[in-house]
Amino acid sequence: MSELLAGKVAIITGSGQGIGREIALCMAREGARVITNNRKPGSLLNAFEKTEIPFTDEERAELTKVTGDAQTTADEIVRSGGQAVPFFGDVGDFETARRMVDTTIDTFGRLDIVVNNASSNWVGNIMDMDEELWDISVVSKLKGAFNLMHHALPHMRDQGYGRVLNSSSDAFQGLTGYAAYGAANAGLVALTKASAGDLAGSGITVNAYTPLARTRAWFNAAATYRLQGVPSEAVEAGAPEAMKRTAEGMVPFLAFLASDRASDISGHLFKLAADGEIGLWSDPKVTREITTTEAAWSIDELTERVPNELMAGVSTHSATAIR
Predict the structure, then answer these.
(1) What is the C-alpha R_g of the chain?
(2) Which residues span the domain enclosing 199?
(3) Number of domains the chain contains
(4) Sheet strand arrangement including 162-167
(5) CATH of the domain at 59
(6) 314 occurs within a structural domain
(7) What is the pLDDT of residue 58?
(8) What pLDDT sits at residue 322?
(9) Is the residue at 307 inside a domain?
């Protein structure tokens, strides 16, 4: 490794398993000292909150290989010669986020990198969602990112250096069944872009990314399809190539964004896939419009022009299906 992050200190939330774990291991290999994190010791097999799936013995065995917590990730870093300290706590709680930052400063003397990777999710129809299920997705992802940024940014400002990386999802486009999760991720994109502008010239960059790799959620989804009668071979064949690989090959890009070498990259949303693809998402733009010379639109004019001009050739029901 290149020791790209030598001397740097990173907090990586949700780093007990999955993509967060691979980010922590990668940044540690590049020389960063790491605070690993998840809500509490141990881990569940269920990736989706308030969801019970009757896993087969084979599925349980596969899930056991990809689960862990902040302690197991920190232990692996230490065994490899790095420095890491676990912090258990829910970043969605404002004071817990403050304690995480304080612990980092007390332990390592500085804070250079924040990776807001933690999230919780529930999948289902919006009509079945209640307030608790909404909060499960929105608080951990969106409020959690704000909480940690709020407490970390003053330290970064004082040292003239900081890197914030926010893990979003392509669910920000509005995937069917992911209303709250999609809303949280869309909000995270806006938070990233607005914060990058607020922090321009400070030495702090803020970027977001949409990762795609095989994680615990993949095994949960595959088990759900099995319960619906879909053969496992069909699920595997229909999965995107990136979902067939784990995340270790794609996370070096995040180490690059966290380094001195990416000091001029801020306010962007990247696509990051385990099959080797790195992409740059475009910003939304108005693709067509209609105007009127009258003081106000009339209903009759709208009835005529909306279907024949504004929506011509466009489905009147736009929804993005789950892959």
Answers:
(1) 21
(2) 9-280
(3) 1
(4) 84-88, 33-38, 9-12, 113-116, 162-167, 204-212, 269-273, 278-280
(5) 3.40.50.720
(6) no
(7) 79
(8) 46
(9) no
Which helix or strand (DSSP H or E) is residue 9 part of?
strand 9-12
Residue 316 forms part of a structural domain: no
Single out the residue of 251, 241, 254 nearest to residue 19, CA to CA: 251
Tokens of 113: 């990198």
Q: Cα(52)–Cα(3) distance, rounded to whole angstroms? A: 43
φ/ψ region of 7 (left if φ > 0, alpha if ψ in -120 to 50, else beta) reads: left
Q: Mean pLDDT of successive 10-residue segments in the chain (323 residues)?
A: 90 95 98 96 74 78 81 97 97 98 98 96 89 92 97 98 96 91 96 98 98 81 76 75 86 98 98 95 94 96 96 75 46
With vertex at residue 164, the alpha carbon angle to CA 160 and CA 166, rounded to the nearest 5 degrees, is 170
Contact 77, 66 (CB under 8 A): no
DSSP H/E element including 37: strand 33-38
Strands of 262-303, DSSP E: 269-273, 278-280
Take residue 281 and report the two structure tokens written for it: 């998402």
Q: How far apart are CA 186 and CA 190, in angstroms?
A: 7
Q: What is the pLDDT of residue 149?
A: 98
Residue 36 one-letter amino acid: T
pLDDT at 323: 43
- Residue 281, pLDDT score: 96
